[in-house]
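writing this on my phone so excuse typos. first protein, seq and then structure
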Amino acid sequence: MFSSLRKLFASEPDPREARRPLWDAVVATARAPHWYAEGQVPDTLDGRFDMISLVMALVLHRIDADPGQGIAGVQLTELFVNDMDGQMRQIGFGDMVVGKQVGRMMSALGGRLGAYRAADGSDELRAALIRNLWRGNAPDEAGLAHVMAEVAALRAALAAMPVSDLVTAGRLPGAAT
């Protein structure tokens, strides 16, 4: 019984918090103005979620390249869930709605993890970006070209960074802000 109480009241730090700087970097990268200005991604709640999901997918793909860092990917995903939950509650969603919405968000992230494995510059990536960032309504060619180029730049910069550095750095390399 004592060990149960100690666990309940323990002040041990949450191990996920070690990934907080990386999560903050994912959000900051996704909120960079160029995505919304030059890239023409809608600057709406949905558009912001879509951009966070895109950057998150690229980061998780990189983390997956090092099986020894798998827990970092799990922790980062848990921070994503907690933040999305908190954001919805702050907007005013109730308990009954939040759980369903978080489930939908996780499903969307899962789908994007697969879709964004498509090669840079490919028709598959182009289609995935149009479907997910612009809800099927392609922006003009300049906006799409900007996003495609920035995705490729971010992916290349992530590939050049050791995964161990990525999960501890608290910043993302490369993409223009």
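second protein below, same order as before
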Amino acid sequence: MIISLIVAIAKNGVIGKSSGEMSWHVSEEFKHFKNTTKGFPVIMGRKTFETLGKPLKDRLNIVLTKNPDFKTEFDEVIIFSSLDDALQFCRNNNYEKVFIIGGAEIYKLALPIVDEMIISFMKFEAEGDVYFPEFNETEWTKEKIMDKELFEVYLYKRN
């Protein structure tokens, strides 16, 4: 099973706001995210899920939370207390690929174990106080896969 991380990062490293509000709205980048993750399980933290407000369509939505009382009204959402348990569930169900979709705490947990990263580098700075964790670029092979007006997409594969 391929563990893939997908993220959009502004020029100043911002990926969002702690209020849960989006730092930008670029429909072409949202479309890229949707097309890339469609049909695969997506793993996200509770805060990210609450920001979305509802499950992402055409994907198994897996929410990580340390809160044992966290519940959701949506049947298509599975809740786990650890990333390891969520990944084991995906392996047991023979998923070909799973996407880690945020937020910052989940990215930090997943970074050491992901096989690849799909990073949209936005061509502008953004307001926000949530940042993508630092990583060692020398551990990755980087390939540009898309160049759009407001962002470039790179595929990072672990060396």
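Residues 2-158 form a domain with the Dihydrofolate Reductase, subunit A fold (CATH 3.40.430.10). thats all i got for now
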